[in-house]
Amino acid sequence: MTVAAIEAVDVSRTYELDGVSVSALRGVSLTIDQGEYVAVIGPSGSGKSTLMHLLGGLDRPSGGRLVIGGRDVASLTAPELATLRNETIGFVFQAFHLLARTSAVDNVALPLVYRGVGARQRRERAAAMLGRVGLGHRLHHRPNQLSGGEQQRVAIARALVTEPAVLLADEPTGNLDSVTGEAVLELLERLNAESGVALVMVTHDQEVAARARRRIAVRDGLIRSDTVHDRPGSAGAGEPATLDPAPSAEPRSASGSGPGRPSGGSGGATGATGRLPHAAGGAG
Amino acid sequence: MRVAEAWRVALDALRANRMRSVLTMLGVIIGVASVVILVAIGTGTKQQVEQQVEGLGSNLLLVVPGKIEVGTAPVVSPLDLKDVDAVSRVVGDPSRVAVTVASGATARAGNRSDFTTVQGVLETTPSVFTRSLQRGRYLTGADVDTSRRVAVLGASVARALFPDRDPLGQQVTLAGVRFRVIGVFAPLGQSLGVDRDDEVHVPVTAAQRLWGTQRIDGIAVKAPDRERIDQLGERIVAELSRRHPDTEFSAVTQQQILGVLGDILGVLTGVLAAIAGISLLVGGVGVSNIMLVSVRERTREIGLRKAVGARPRDIGVQFLLEAVLLTSIGGLTGMALGVGTALLVDAFSPIPAAITWWSLALAFGVSAAVGIVFGVVPAQRAGRLDPVVALRAE
């Protein structure tokens, strides 16, 4: 079995706000395998953003073990963590986060700057990547000269130009209309299928989440369910179940308990196929 | 991140906020330009004064009653022409001894008048001091011996009294007494704001009669050589002290005058440079301020850069370079402005200015250092930003 791209074991994250401890994540275990397509779904305040920041190496867990790209985050210094992000993770944000006054090709090339790639090669790789997201004709446009969908595609190109193991998309369609959003999702899914990059998409949108084969529901800092669906896109039937899963299914994932324990319950409730909790697969 | 890349990013950031960058630089530009200009003026003045003191003549010894020290009151001179004879005997050569008795007086010619300094002198003056005539002749021994009422005019006096005719042979009235003009000095120019051409030389005997005195204000001696100049001074002072036991006398050389003047002007230049330096410091505070604003404005950009792999150091270097670039460009511009202004001042005003390389190097070095010193705190703040918090910033 190949090494997991990301592996979290009983990961928690606590913030200190004016002397009061707030638990955003309360012990989460999961594994993201290479090439997977995972949707992380949950209402606002559920801890899904915190989870994404941890999975992307932007933040460190307060407790538990988090291994990204084979490296234990706890043992890394800030510069090492930055390098790890650069090499392993690609981010796509709801707000695009493109540099204004900077051309599309230079925006896409930005991660390569921090990898020490020479200017010419950066541009070549960035231009090629823009071609793959269908923006080969927009290389020298600036963000304010691009539509929202185009901007998000530039951001996707930037996330993939380093050929990361994991693409973390945080509400990638949140700022887009439904037609444009659909196109962006199709692009993400195509890239996931073509290049084998694992796609982890954080969303609160049931329809969007229903497209993913594996869906992880987060609520109150815990994983409520972690299910695999044979027929991705079976939104109607699958979604409500994911958010309101059978009670018996929940505690297993949330507690991050015992590797190897079969996940019988959740699949049954949704009508989708159950699978092993991912932590188990990765650790095993 | 490569250094060249960091420079480009910093330059882009400055270009993006062109107006703000220029205004921030202005503080540094003014600071550096002031340092360069003020040091140039101080240096130029010092050089000019040195040239003028040296241009008086060589191996000069000035003998005056009283002490030459800052803070001592001028002393009424007890000297007269008999003392001058005594000094001449000590020196061994009367032609090396010059005297002066000076007073302010109004010079008149026709309906024109000019308030000037009338100096009673011996015919030896041109052989002691370097003075050249433009027209006519200087005083002679016979003029002095017979108290002849003849006068040699300084260039500006001649210009004031006789703007459109030849002064030679004309009459001037000094303190109500008529003198005949026999010569005109070549112009000397100004020294520390004093017009050195604003004087009239008359025979010392005529001057004494004019003012009803036997007094001599000071004696100047041209020593035969530099080595024995101090020894000669001591002998002259000893002789005068013997003749006037109640009075102290001083003998100073050009070197001593230069030393005193140089010290004064050096301090002055230093004070000017320090004042200008303070404005450079204020410019640096402005840079620091603007960099903090810049970090706050670009928090999201910092967060994004960190997300895609920028290390804290990459971000810090980027902002530090931005600050250094601000002050360095400001420093170079200020240097150009300072040099240009100093050259203009030197060419078109009576104030002398001389550019010194050390002042340019210092001003530029300080401005670059100001960028580093005042850029470090904002750069560190940027480098330490939590990427999660930074990405969420508005």
From TrEMBL, chain A:
UniProt-listed PANTHER family: ABC TRANSPORTER ABCH.1, IMPORT ATP-BINDING PROTEIN
Biased amino acid composition, Gly residues: 257-271
Compositionally biased residues, Low complexity: 245-256
Region described as Disordered: 224-284
Claim: Transcription is one of the keywords in the record: no
Residue ranges annotated for the ABC transporter domain, each copy included: 6-245
Gene3D superfamilies: P-loop containing nucleotide triphosphate hydrolases
Organism: Micromonospora humi
Pfam families xref list: ABC_tran (PF00005)
Keywords, comma-separated and alphabetical: ATP-binding, Nucleotide-binding, Transport
Domain of life where this protein originates: Bacteria
A single GO molecular function term of this UniProt record: ATP binding
GO cellular component: membrane protein complex; plasma membrane
SUPFAM superfamilies linked: P-loop containing nucleoside triphosphate hydrolases
Protein name: Putative ABC transport system ATP-binding protein
Automatic annotation (TrEMBL), chain B:
MF GO annotations: transmembrane transporter activity
This protein's record includes keyword ATP-binding: no
Gene Ontology CC: plasma membrane
This protein's record includes keyword Signal: no
InterPro entries: ABC3_permease_C, MacB_PCD, Macrolide_Exporter_MacB
Compartment(s) of residence: Cell membrane
PANTHER family (alphabetical): ABC TRANSPORTER PERMEASE YTRF, MEMBRANE COMPONENT OF TRANSPORTER-RELATED
One of the Pfam families matching this protein, by short name: FtsX
Annotated protein name in UniProt: Putative ABC transport system permease protein
